[in-house]
Amino acid sequence: ILNVEQSPQSLHVQEGDSTNFTCSFPSSNFYALHWYRWETAKSPEALFVMTLNGDEKKKGRISATLNTKEGYSYLYIKGSQPEDSATYLCASPIYGNNRLAFGKGNQVVVIP
Amino acid sequence: NAGVMQNPRHLVRRRGQEARLRCSPMKGHSHVYWYRQLPEEGLKFMVYLQKENIIDESGMPKERFSAEFPKEGPSILRIQQVVRGDSAAYFCASSPRGAGGEQFFGPGTRLTVL
Predict the structure, then answer these.
(1) B40 at the A interface (CB within 8 A)?
(2) How many degrees, rounded to 5, is the angle at CA A21 between CA A15 and CA A24?
(3) Which residues does residue A14 pair with via DSSP β-bridges, in sequence order?
(4) Are A111 and A13 in contact, with CB atoms under 8 Å apart?
(5) 3-state secondary structure of B42
(6) Is A105 near chain B, with CB under 8 Å?
(7) A45-69 tens-digit pLDDT
(8) Among A41, A58, A88, B39, whose CB has the most other CB atoms within 10 angstroms?
(9) What CA–CA distance (Å, rounded) separates B86 from B63?
(10) pLDDT tens by residue, B48-88
């Protein structure tokens, strides 16, 4: 893989259900993997910065895992709530020099 | 501690005019990054600056675009002779250090070229 890619592009989740989505990135010369949460009309807000293979990070009901050998990260939302509706972006400095390459995002809509 | 500030939030220009976008990083942050989001696309890196220096401008078009981050004052992204294709949301981010650390984003400037 040559770029940062995210799937699925969008998903609808029933309130209370858990969900997860994937970020894929080049596994060679890996440095860091960033997850951001982006609500409409607001700034992207950093959730996690992950650097080590096997890292797991958690913030409230949101958690993320990292596999640098195979080049993927999962983001999990447990017990989705309407306020979790947002676009979740992952990014990595795949070209070096702090130049973050972003995926197109996972757009999550939580249905009450 | 105020977050990253960008102004204006919305900017309308006619073709051929100049657009100036400003970004004030968070206090204590000396690294600034500019990203652009074109319609239906993700965020794309444009330029990375430290105080008074351009570190990486590989994502910025060679013509009409320039960026600076002076010793005093905000970082400026300048687009000369704007065209319709420049219409996009421009985001600035800052960080206290480089090395792939967390970047803090501003609310963006939405540029519309008529």
Answers:
(1) no
(2) 165
(3) A111
(4) yes
(5) coil
(6) yes
(7) 999 999 999 999 999 999 999 999 9
(8) A88
(9) 12
(10) 999 889 999 999 999 999 999 998 899 999 999 999 999 99
